[in-house]
Write a structure and sequence with these properties.
heterodimer; A: about 500 residues; alpha/beta; Amidase signature (AS) enzymes; 16 helices; 11 strands; about 40% helix; about 15% strand; B: about 100 residues; mainly alpha; Histone, subunit A; two-stranded antiparallel sheet; 3 helices; 2 strands
Chain lengths: ~500, ~100
Amino acid sequence: MTSLTGLTLEGARDGLRRKDFSAREMTAAHLAAMDAARTLNAFICETPERALEMAAASDARLARGEGLALDGLPIAIKDLFCTENVATTAASRILEGFKPPYESTVTANLWRAGAVMLGKTNLDEFAMGSANVTSAFGKVENPWRRRGDNRPLVPGGSSGGSAAAVAARAALAATGTDTGGSIRQPASFCGIVGLKPTYGRCSRWGIVAFASSLDQAGPMARTVRDAAIMLQAMAGHDPRDSTSAPVPVPDFAAACGASVRGLKIGIPREYRIDGMDPAIEALWQRGIAWLKDAGAEPVEVALPLTRHALPAYYIIAPAEASANLARYDGVRFGLRVPGESLDAMYEATRAAGFGAEVKRRILIGTYVLSAGYYDAYYLKAQKVRALIARDFDEAWRQCDAILTPTAPSAAFAIGEKMDDPVAMYLNDVFTVPASLAGLPAISVPAGLSADGLPLGLQVIGRGFDEATVLSLAAALEDAAAFAHLPGLVAGDAA
Amino acid sequence: MALDKATVARIATLARIRVTAEELDHLAGELSQIITWIEQLDEVDTAGVEPMASAVHQSLPMRDDVVDDGFCRDRILANAPQQANGFFVVPKVVE
C-alpha cells in the first residue's frame, strides 16, 4: 500500500472515496508522523482525540457515499485561528489559558467540508516575524538542512510551524495567515506551495488580528492543486467580516489545468536587488523561460515604488498592531499580572505577556500614531501605499500576472540575523508589495540553492484573479518538477 | 530621527507596557534604527496623493438592526482572569 503521509491532499481524497484506506487509518498515520517530527516543534497543541473523532465521523459519511469535499483529510491549523474550546495562543504568553468560545469562520468552513484537525501549529508571536524564532513556545526547525552542514535552519515565518509540518509530511496541508509574506516566505523556505489570496477572499473573523488591513488567511500544501482544493473550502463571503468580499468563489482546482498560452507575464526589474543569491536570479530566469515554453509572453514592467514598500509596511503594520493588541489588558482573557492600580495591572501584564519583537512593534506603532508624528509617518506611509497600489494598476495594463522570486535568500540558520531587526525585515522585501495592494500571490517551489535548500518563485495576480495565479503556478510546478525531499521526513514520503 | 530614552519611556506609557531601565537603553537604539530606516520614505513625492487605508474598494456594508447573537455571558466570562457575580473584576479605580 502507498504511504498515507506521502500522498497529496487530492490523492488522499480520491483514495478515501475509493475506500483504499479509511479516514481513521489516514489520521493515525499522521498522528504517528507528528510524533516522529516532534524535534521540529511545529505544533503548539496536538489534538489527537478530536482528530480520531472527526475521522470516525468522516468514515461514516464516506461509507454512506456522502463524502464531503475534504472528508477525512488531516490538516494542521496555524495557532492564530480561534478554535472552539481548543487553546488558542497566537504563540504568546499573554493568551495563556485562553480557550475561545467560538470557531473562526475559515476553520468552521474546513470542518464543514469534513477536514480533520491534527492540532495547532507554532508561529512567530502574533504572526510578527520571518523566522519563527519569536514564539513563546520555542523556535520551529526547518525539516531541511544545508548539504554538508547540520546546523538547524529556520522554517521562515510567521507560518513556520504550518510550513514545517507540511514539508515533513506530518500534515497533508495546513492553514496559514499572511500579513506581509507570512504564508509565502515560509513556503519558499520549506519547499512547499503557499497561497495568499486576495484581501477579502477569506473571512478574517475569529483570526487573532495583527494588521487588519493586510491580514489574510490562505492554504499551505505540497502541490498547487492541493492549495486550490483547500482554498475552495476556506474562501467565501462572511457577513461577520465587513471586509469579506461578497463575490462568487470560482472553481480553483479547474484553474490549475487551464492553459497559460497568450498570458502576458510582467517581469519587474525593481525586484533585482543587491546581494541577492545568484541562484535566485538564475531560478527567476528559468521561471521566465518555463512560462515562455508554456506559451506565455514575458514583458518588462516597472514597479518603481518597490523599494519603498517595506518601510511603508513597517509603519502601517505596527500602527494597526498597536491598536489591535490594546485588547490584551489582563481583564477579559489570558494572562493577568496583579498591580496596585488598573494602569499598573495593565503595564505589568503587557510587560510580562508580550515578547521583545511584539513590544518593539507596539512601541513603533504607538510612536507613528502619536500626536505630532501621525502625518509625518502614518499618513505618509498610507500615501506611499496608494502609490504602490497604483504601480500595480499601471502594470495590469501591460500584463496578466507578475513573476518574481519569493524571498531574497534560502532558509538561514537559527540565530542568524537576530541582532538586527531591519535585516530580518528584509526577508519580506518581495512579498510585502502585493500585501499592501491586497493582491493574490503564490509561492511555488522551483529549485534548490547551491547548498541544497528549496527556493520559491512568486506569481502575483490581479485582485480576485486567483484563477490566473493558480494556472501559472501549475505551469511552473509542471516545468520545475520539484521532487526533492527535506532531510527530515516524519511520515513515509513514497 | 533618533529616539531618546525619555521618548521611548513616554510611548511605553502610552502603550501601557512597563519597561525597565536596561530595556530602555537597548529599545532606544533599536527603535531609532528602525525609524531612521523608515525615513527613506521622505524621498517619495506624495503631494496630492490620497492616503490608502484599505485594499477594499467598497463602502462598509450595513446589516439589519436585529439581535442575532448574544446571551452568552457565562461563556465569555469563562476566560476572565477574575470575575464575580457576572462581571469582570479589576483593581479598584474609584477611591
